[in-house]
Amino acid sequence: MTATASGLVVVDKPVGLTSHDVVSRLRRLAGTRKVGHAGTLDPMATGVLVLGVNRATRLLGHLMLTEKAYDATVRLGVATTTDDAEGEVVATAPTAGVDEADVRAALTGFVGEIEQVPTAVSAIKVDGKRAYQRVRDGEDVQLKARPVTVHELVVHDVVREGEQLDVEISVRCSSGTYIRAIARDLGARLGVGGHLTALRRTAVGPYDLGVARTLDQLGEEFALMPIAEAARRAFPVRELDAAHAADVRVGRPLDVAVDGVTAVFDPAGEFLALYEPRNGAAKPVAVFV
């Protein structure tokens, strides 16, 4: 690819790397500093990480607002400081009195529009400082509950492992939902504590593991999803005539109907901008030409 090429790269992130580690690797492979990602993944997590190169970085903020999907393992009977396996154990409890029916019944309460307190070691800023950094500095961080939506939560298996129970789930949810918080809250609801032991993101909006590539694969053959294809996958599309396309190039409103945030294209198929309906017209959200 050329250093000026723009597009998306969907990476299947391996365990142990931070999202910033992946960005650094992509910068070397793409030959440009202009690389960003749409939503972080913790080092223990694997799966879909969407990255933008050059002009496509401007798409990322809009992709971060889309729904996401995960496969996860929750361990009941142990609570940790971070609500996942990377934290220190703060409490244990026997799970002999909890069975699969109890787990399934409790998890039904996490589906739909819910109020969720993010994990204290999240990247949410508190007075300008990341919550996880405040925790590392020894502060007692209390975050406020936020509305999130869990569209679907499927329980695949409940397996007893000694004193603990491992619960295999799949979750489809709004951006901003913390799967670690579901693990924590499930344990609290059942009175035994809980934390996340495995997390794999399987989709970010329309980008799933089917289009993801490992870092090793990208090292052998680096390829971008062109920005036009990325926009067509992620947003409703409106094809414009030459006159309207000329208006878009200078950021003018359009007298055409658009369905929410919409990707608009010129007659030759070039991706021009994202537009949205506002005050009776279609107005630019971001122009890419």
TrEMBL record:
EC number assigned by the record: 5.4.99.25
Classification lineage: Bacteria, Bacillati, Actinomycetota, Actinomycetes, Propionibacteriales
Gene3D superfamilies on file: Pseudouridine synthase, PUA domain
Signal peptide (UniProt feature, chain positions): none
Keyword Disulfide bond: no
Enzyme kind, highest EC tier: isomerase
Source species: Nocardioides koreensis
Catalytic residues (UniProt): 42
Domain (tRNA pseudouridylate synthase B C-terminal) ranges: 180-223
Sorted UniProt keywords: Isomerase, tRNA processing
One of the Pfam families matching this protein, by short name: TruB_C_2
Chain's role: Responsible for synthesis of pseudouridine from uracil-55 in the psi GC loop of transfer RNAs.
tRNA pseudouridine synthase II TruB subfamily 2 C-terminal domain sequence ranges: 235-288
PANTHER family: PSEUDOURIDYLATE SYNTHASE TRUB1, TRNA-PSEUDOURIDINE SYNTHASE
Protein's recorded name: tRNA pseudouridine synthase B
Protein family according to the UniProt entry: Belongs to the pseudouridine synthase TruB family. Type 1 subfamily.
Keyword hit for Ubl conjugation: no
Domain Pseudouridine synthase II N-terminal: 27-179
Catalytic activity annotation: uridine(55) in tRNA = pseudouridine(55) in tRNA
